[in-house]
Design goal:
By secondary structure, the chain is an alpha+beta fold. It is built from six helices and twelve strands. The radius of gyration is 21 Å and the shape is globular.
């Protein structure tokens, strides 16, 4: 992965409340030819992953394990992503075979983590008048609202137009409105905090990301998850500050966290909020 493709990411599974399993490695460099995901994040179109070799499965695990090679990792690492997918990290000097053995040895732990994941509270799949949803960090009830001729609903103190109050699922309509609001507000807030911190941001995008809260490239492009608008302002600010500080440090070193703490003193509180309430964000 070239330098221009280096991307620092704040992922759901990093804040998932599941302590990862790790194992030291002291084996020769593998020659499996896997493309490296430089920061050990879930695989995307620029990274290679394995979900089982010929005739191989990882038994008794509800989600197939995704194996990702990370040249910076020193240990084998097993964690659970926010969407419930197990991620096994293969370190620079590790082998796929040893990683599979590591996963198998930790099947019981992985099943327990998946059980915990399934029990996490989530918003209803379908939204209608009377449904409770998360909006700007508060659990609020969708209610009818009077506003002109078009049907409207109130989500907390804010009002949104809908096509039909009798629609059995208002979620697509409301989420589209939330995304539009997020693109405006999160983008503006990022530029504001970039100016406040003196960071040189080239572009801000707000997207429908399923595995990360935000990301930042060395070229100054910051991407944010639109669902951050469902969180309190101090939480979305933290994620923005987190990505801005990656323009100084494209890693999670002590220097990076010191920079985050300097501009966002309540960052730990924000991470605790995400850990506790992240499942309510409709993921």
């Amino acid at each position: 992965m070239g330098v221009e493709n280096t991307e620092a990411q704040l992922n759901f599974f990093e804040l998932g409340g599941f302590e990862p399993r790790e194992m030291n490695v002291s084996v020769p460099q593998s020659s499996s030819g896997l493309e490296v995901d430089a920061l050990g994040d879930p695989p995307d179109e620029n990274s290679s992953s394995l979900t089982g070799g010929p005739g191989e499965t990882v038994p008794a695990i509800r989600e197939e394990v995704v194996f990702v090679r990370n040249l910076r990792a020193k240990n084998y690492r097993l964690t659970l992503r926010k969407d419930g997918v197990p991620i096994a990290t293969i370190p620079a000097r590790g082998t796929e075979r040893a990683a599979r053995k590591f996963v198998k040895e930790n099947e019981d732990w992985l099943r327990r983590m998946q059980d915990r994941h399934q029990k996490q509270p989530r918003m209803a799949d379908r939204w209608m008048v009377g449904t409770t949803v998360m909006w700007r960090g508060e659990m609020v009830v969708i209610q009818r609202a009077s506003s002109g001729d078009r049907p409207h609903v109130a989500v907390g103190p804010e009002v949104f137009g809908v096509n039909d109050l009798a629609n059995p699922d208002l979620r697509p309509t409301l989420e589209a409105a939330f995304r539009s609001r997020a693109r405006i507000e999160l983008t503006a807030r990022t530029w504001e905090l970039a100016a406040e911190t003196g960071m040189d941001v080239k572009k801000v995008s707000v997207r429908n990301q399923r595995t990360r809260w935000g990301s930042c490239t060395e070229g100054g492009v910051i991407s944010l998850n639109w669902r951050l608008i469902l969180s309190p302002a101090f939480v979305s600010d933290y994620v923005i500050f987190h990505e801005l500080m990656h323009l100084k440090e494209m890693n999670h070193s002590k220097r990076f966290w010191a920079a985050v703490a300097e501009v966002c003193p309540d960052w730990e509180e924000a991470e605790i909020w995400l850990d506790k309430h992240g499942s309510y964000l409709g993921l």
